[in-house]
Structures are given as structure tokens and as C-alpha cells.
Amino acid sequence: MMDDDLEARVARQFPSLYLTLVSVLVGLVLSDLFSEMHARMNLWPLTIEACRTWCQVLGNTLAALAAWVTYSHLGLVKQRLPTVWDTLDAVLVLITIPSNALVGRHDAAAWFLVAASWNLLAVCAVRINLWQASREPHLAHFARIGRFSGPYNYLYVGAPAFIVMSVLSYLHMTTPLVELAAAATAPIAAIAVTILFMREWRAAVLQARDTGAPGPARN
Q1: Rounded to whole angstroms, how far apart are CA atoms 119 and 189?
Q2: What CA dihedral angle connects 163, 153, 196 and 201, to 10 degrees?
Q3: Reduced to 3 DSSP states, what percent helix, strand and coil does the chain have, rounded to the nearest 5?
Q4: Residue whose C-alpha is closest to residue 49's, from 180, 170, 171, 169
Q5: Cis status of the peptide bond prior to 45, with omega within 30 of 0
Q6: d(Cα 45, Cα 59) in Å, to the nearest integer?
Q7: What is the C-alpha to C-alpha distance for residues 130 and 139, in angstroms, rounded to an integer?
Q8: Most C-beta atoms within 10 A of its C-beta, which of 14, 50, 70, 157?
Q9: How many CA atoms lie within 13 Å of 55's alpha carbon, on the beta-carbon side?
Q10: Phi and psi at residue 136, in whole multiples of 5°?
């Protein structure tokens, strides 16, 4: 009885602990980005390169916030004992920091390459998060959020697309306007992903409510 009470107590504390960790890591990512902005970025006057820099800044910022929305809202529905996978999943937020160092550089190839890596690792983070959530029987249907045609479709498409852009930019086969347009997709996609995720997350929560929610899952 005492073991069951302790397990339930730890499981109840897990969402707040997880949310705190993710919030701190996202804050670290944004602080690093803003430090880079003050230290070296040219944001005015609005040349094509400056506009591309703005798109990169907004892309990194909104990507970090979109990650926080995913982590926090999936963390809220979990009620179980934490595992090492939860820590690994949260730490993957830090993959944005290498991208911060490449924002605003004259050569955009490196930023596109890191953005491709970011999308790929973000897919892994989403998959781990949804896999961990679906370990609880009443949350099994949450795994559907990570499907190819779902809210994170941009991540699946963005990874190879940014690799192609990186190669073309490195070989000087693109124009500044093309690079600007490609960079502009990042903040737009981050907003779209967040909106679509929230819509599906709410539907999944209502479905779990209708089917009933058992106690915390055991490891």
C-alpha cells in the first residue's frame, strides 16, 4: 500500500517537474539566441540579407516556442514514473543552440544544414515524446499525432528540403531571394505546426476523457 501511494505521489509530481525542466531549457535557448543578436547580427537597414537574418531569428525563436508547446502539453497529460527517455527527450531542445550560432551569417549554407539536422532531431524528439505518452493505455491514441500527414509533416519534409538548400547555397546555385524565401518558411511552419498540434492535442484529450482515464502507468 505504501509503495502504491509513493508511486502515485511521484506520478502526480512528474508533469510539473517535466514542464519546469523544458521551460528552463527553452529559456536557455532563447537567451543564447538573443545574445547572438546583440553581439553580431545586422538587422537594419532591411537589405535582402538582413531580411533573411530576421527570418532565421524568427524561425529559431518560434521553433523553440513550438517545441515548448509540444513538450508542455504532452507532459501535462502524463501521469507515471519518469524514465531516462523523458530526460533525453527534453534535452533535445538544446539542438537549437548550434543553429543560433549560424543565424545572420553571410553564407547561409551552414544554417540550412543545421536547420535540416534540427528538423530531423525534432522528429526524433516528437517520436520519443509520443512513444512515452502512449505507454499509458488511455493515451495510446496520442501516437497518431506523429503520423506523416499530421501536424509535424513539415519536419519530415523540411529535413531533406533544407539539405538540398544547403548544398545549392554552398555551390552558389541559388539567389539571395531564393534563400530568403527558404528561410521564411521556418517561422511560418513553426506557427502552423503549433496551431495544428494544439487542434489535435485537444481532440486527443477529449477522446481520452470520453473513454475514461485509469491510474498512472507502471514501469
Answers
A1: 11
A2: -120
A3: 80, 0, 20
A4: 180
A5: yes
A6: 20
A7: 9
A8: 70
A9: 24
A10: -85, 125
Q: Which residues contact residue 94 at a Cβ distance below 8 angstroms, ignoring those fewer than 6 apart?
A: 25, 28, 29
Nearest Cα to Cα of residue 127 among 162, 92, 175, 81: 92
Collapse the DSSP code of 213 into the 3-class scheme (helix H, G, I; strand E, B; otherwise coil) and give the result. coil
Round to whole Å and give the CA distance between 116 and 112. Answer: 6
**Any idea what DSSP says for residue 218?**
P
Cell numbers standing for residue 188: 511560418
DSSP string, 33-59: HHHHHHHH----S--HHHHHHHHHHHH
What is the spatial distance between Cα 98 and Cα 95, in angstroms, rounded to a whole number?
6
pLDDT in tens, 45-97: 889 999 999 999 999 999 999 989 988 888 887 777 777 877 777 888 888 88
